[in-house]
Amino acid sequence: MARILFFGRLADLAGGRERVLHIGDSVHNLRELVDLIAKGDDRLGAALREKSVQTIINERLNSGDAITDSDEIAFLPPVSGG
Amino acid sequence: MIRISTSTFDPGKELSAFEKNAGDAGAVVSFLGRVRGEETESAVRALYLEHYPGVTEHRLGDAEAEAHRRWAIDEPLIIHRIGDMKPGEPIVFVCVSARHRRDAFEAADFLMDYLKTKALFWKKEIRPGGDQWIEPRAQDYSDAARWNERDKDN
Fold first, then answer.
1. Domains, chain B, ranges and CATH?
2. Cα distance from A15 to chain B (closest Cα, Å)?
3. How close does chain A come to B141, measured CA to CA in Å?
4. Is the complex ipTM higher than 0.90?
5. Which of A47, A78, B36, B122 lies at a CB distance of 3.0 to 4.6 Å from B135, suitable for a disulfide?
6. Which residue of A has its CA nearest to B58?
7. Which of B92, B115, B122 to mutate to test the interface with A (most CBs of A within 10 A)?
8. Which of B55, B112, B136 sits opposite A80 (nearest CB)?
9. Who's near A41: CB < 8 A, 6+ residues apart?
10. Domains and CATH numbers, chain A
11. In the predicted model, what is the mean pLDDT of residues B100-107?
């Protein structure tokens, strides 16, 4: 099962910070994952496709595009610390 | 040292402890960021902050390492609040000690620019008219870009 994390306004849109998804054979990369999530929720899908949204796979930045059913995928809107 | 704190802290005490550990460093620079209040009807009542546990800390460590690479400084202290805060409360505290003041000033400035534009925190303002997630201002990005410009010059 893949663990999907949402932060900031994306968590509000998703209705929670975390989702566990069985992504099986149909999803091989981030684009397909976003398509799967968007199927049930157009607004969240559109928000995840925004250019300003970064992704981190298994806690590593620039971790490529490929995902599997055992990955943790985090969707990050623009940050605002300090 | 990097500390993500779910409860408020006393910057005076933290600075005092930091100074004690600063040995014979000739300069100590500290910056305290606080929750801003506003004198308008849409005043911020509270602030909520969240982070990506583990990953936020790890990447702040990378920023500290980068500061070490650029300036002759000792181990900095970064404290960042998460959770609910009220106007006037501390959000972020950065302390840098160094042999000379310029290194300490610049490293603290660099770390704050990093915290404002790259560190993995998300901040929501709780206002009477509705909550709002905050994004960096254009000024924050251009402040942070100064360090890249300097790389090109060198």
1. 2-144 (3.90.1170.40)
2. 15
3. 11
4. yes
5. A78
6. A59
7. B122
8. B136
9. A13, A14
10. 2-76 (3.10.20.30)
11. 98
